[in-house]
Amino acid sequence: MKPDWVREHVISGEARPLKIGNVTRALADYWREHRNQHEDSCLRVCTMNLVVVTSEPSGAAGLGARLKELAPNYPCRSVLVVRDPETEGDLTGWLSPTCIPAKEHQAGSEQLIFHAPGGGERIPSLVLPLLRPDLPVFLYWIGGPPFGANFFERLVEGSSRVLFDSATFPFTSALTQVLELVQDRYHCEQAFSDLSWGRLATWRQLVAALFDSPGAREQLGKTRRVEVQFWTPGEVREFAPGPLLMAGWLASRLKWRSSGSLQRADGVWESSLASEGGPIRLRLIPVANPDPELEGRLVGVTLACDGCTFSVHRQEEDLQKMTSVVDGLAVEIDHQLRLQALDEAHLLGREFEQLSRDPVFESSLRSALELGGYREVARA
Q1: For position 106, what pLDDT does the model report?
Q2: What is d(CA 41, CA 70) in angstroms, rounded to the nearest whole number?
Q3: Which residue blocks in the chain are alpha helix, DSSP H?
Q4: Does the chain have fewer CB atoms within 10 Å around its N or its C terminus?
Q5: Please, are residues 98 and 71 in contact by the beta-carbon 8 Å criterion?
Q6: Phi, psi of 137 (to 5 degrees)
Q7: Does residue 277 or residue 42 have the better pLDDT?
Q8: Do 141 and 11 lie in a common domain?
Q9: Taking the CA of residue 186 as centre, how many other CA atoms within 13 Å lie in the half-sphere pointing to its CB?
Q10: What separation in angstroms does the CA of 268 have from each of 182, 229, 264, 369?
Q11: What is the dihedral of CA 359, 362, 364, 368, to 10 degrees?
């Protein structure tokens, strides 16, 4: 891939070529020139550092514009690195600044974009010196990360919070390596999260709300079957991260123990769980949907107990509408809620609000991997 592809398909708005090794001076020159040419001052504002690395060029298409959506609420210095492992050549860079109208002045933030051919060994020495000191560093990796690679480890060590999107991983089993990072004592100063986990936030809230009443909570100990439905555009060869994390969340919060890994039968993944109230049957059920953008997104969650059923599901006529139903209790529930469409910018914004580790995510990930049959890693 040529650098021109990055300029055309990744960068949004103004783009000034950068000389590698002279980036800091180029930034200072740009803002000085801007002040001299514009009467309305544009104040440089930076509350954090954001480093975004794509595993391959295709993951970077349109990324510059998507990241600029974050600038009004999260002014930062963002460094976007488009890895191109199939190409050899020199590093190429651009500066793409943004000025955002404010009450008394414009707030300016900076986006640095680099095309990085080759294996990636040059990336840490390029990126780390460009970060603003004494500010948190968020590392967002798009695609399957090169776990274990020296340059990847250096980027992780230089970050405050590391974000993945397991929906872009080539295999769900790569979640085991995310857990290895979480459990690595050498990474105890870093926090880790997954955008697939963020997409489940509304689902987790709605499922938890089904059990607000004391009578409903009493039924949890009588759970006999759990079903998680998710979309797939075609034949499913591996369960998706989203439904697996949802099942892991239920198991970790309710102290259900995996008594067997998920096995596929008639297109459905099934497993058994052990609880104080007795055995529970877990089913991950794929539902056909031709839209590849919706692959792995949840369709419904059902908990069947003795004599009653609790469920949250999308409406068929409007997929952004959610219906919560409690059937079989003395006081039944049937109400609707519109599901907020969370794009990449919204999900990242939520992650930027938290610097500390998320113990609920970590325990849910551990339980999810036990359900998936990766017990050796989950119990390490």
Answers
A1: 66
A2: 21
A3: 3-9, 23-37, 63-68, 123-127, 150-157, 175-183, 195-199, 201-209, 214-219, 241-253, 344-352, 359-371, 375-378
A4: C
A5: yes
A6: -120, 120
A7: 277
A8: yes
A9: 8
A10: 30, 10, 5, 18
A11: -170
Q: CA 361 to CA 368: how far, in whole Å?
A: 10
CB atoms within 10 A of CB 344: 18
Q: Are residues 110 and 241 in the same domain?
A: no
Please report whether residue 180 resides in a domain: no
* Same domain, residue pair 210 and 138: no
Type of residue found at 287: V
Q: Which tens digit of pLDDT belongs to each residue from 291-305?
A: 888 889 999 999 999
Token pair of 182 as six digits: 């979480």
Find tokens 């959610």 and name the residue. 322
What pLDDT digit, counting tens, does each position of 57-112 carry? 888 889 888 888 888 889 899 999 999 999 899 999 999 887 765 545 566 778 99
Question: Which tens digits make up the pLDDT trace of 194-243?
Answer: 999 999 999 999 999 999 888 889 999 999 999 999 999 877 767 789 99
* Residue 22 tokens, joined: 């002279």
Can you tell me which residue has the tokens 């056909």?
Answer: 288
- Report whether 241 contacts 196 (CB < 8 A): yes
Residue 317 or residue 170, greater confidence: 170
**How many residues are recorded in the chain?**
380
pLDDT of residue 328: 75
Q: What is the pLDDT of residue 14?
A: 79
The label of the residue with tokens 């300016």 reads 108
- The tokens for 146 are 């090169």
Locate tokens 């509304």: which residue?
A: 202
* Residue 159 main-chain phi, psi, to 5 deg: -110, 155
The band of 330, judged by pLDDT with boundaries at 50, 70 and 90, is low
Contact 220, 254 (CB under 8 A): yes
Say whether both 152 and 202 belong to one domain. no
Distance CA 249, CA 269 (A): 17
Distance CA 8, CA 229 (A): 39
